[in-house]
Amino acid sequence: MRRTTVTAERSGRRPRRSIGRILSAGAMAVALVTGGSALALPATAAAETSTHAGDGIIITTADGRESICTLNSVAERDGTFYGVTAGHCLNQEEIGSPVVKISTKDGRLLADNEDVAAGGVIRGGTANPFEPFAGLDDFSWFRLDDSVTPNPGQVSSTADTGIPVLDDVLRGTSQPLGDPVPVSQNLVGSIVCKDGTMSGRTCGPVLAVNAQTQEITALIPAIGGDSGSPLHVAGQDGKRHIVGTLSNGTPVLFNTFDGTREHLDRI
């Protein structure tokens, strides 16, 4: 994969109007007329749009193409919430056209054109499973729409391998999240897990880390659409802690993760 460096500077933040509002235009009644009488039925409110680490995101570009990645985490700055994913998922030079919309897998809005413009992309480096110490930056973020209820304290995932029995096994149940932690040498040999929207929760040992440039190589399977997946470790507080963002690798061998915490100050 070609490695270039493209940085989109953040734009000004807008005040967040209401976190957690339900998408509903108001109560409606349906009249069923039978024999001259009418029965009013209450309307069903629109489903709430929420998101969390491990969610699938659909990325739509200006030329109408769509691709799928995974939400790494939800970050909050001054009362505004942002979705975090891999940089190559939103990098115009790699996807060929500007991103104009980000939505859930079932089509509900997460970010419109203005929300995407309020985020940014950090790309560079050549680290991969065969060059784990080459250095890598693969991080992007976008503002979450006001209609979205963010859940920064949860990680979970589904699986969509095309094999229903396998999907049930790989589905990642909800677990509480603590604060992200940095990449450190003591991670080598420990068991870590990733939550991707396509291959669910897979776990394996850390094979190598670059503590200086904050990358991790782990023996964890992943498939297309898992880019951006959170890599998390168990904490003594009983919570999971995100340490990396899935960048590249192979379905059955090694995968490379860019350190997450090192980039969060850019948001």
Describe the protein in words.
Helices cover 7% and strands 44% of the residues. A hairpin with a 2-residue loop joins strand 6 and strand 7 (80-85). It has 2 domains: 49-150, Beta Barrel (Thrombin, subunit H); 152-262, Beta Barrel (Thrombin, subunit H). The strands form 5 sheets. A 6-stranded antiparallel barrel has the order 14-15-16-19-18-17. The chain is globular and about 40 Å long. It is mainly beta and 267 residues long.
Q: What string gives the helices and strands in order?
A: EEEEEEEHHEEHEEEHEEEEEEE
Counting structural domains, the number is 2
Residue share in β-strands: 35-45%
Total strands: 19
Total helical elements = 4
Q: Please state the structural category.
A: mainly beta
**CATH topological fold name of the largest domain:** Thrombin, subunit H
Rounded to an integer in angstroms, the radius of gyration calculated over CA atoms is 20 Å
Shape assignment: globular
- The whole-number mean of residue pLDDT values reads 84
Protein name: Putative secreted protein
Organism: Corynebacterium glyciniphilum AJ 3170
InterPro entries: Peptidase_S1_PA, Peptidase_S1_PA_chymotrypsin
Features:
Peptidase_S1_PA, globular, Peptidase_S1_PA_chymotrypsin, 6-stranded antiparallel beta barrel, Thrombin, subunit H, Putative secreted protein, 2 domains, 267 residues, 4-stranded antiparallel beta sheet, single chain
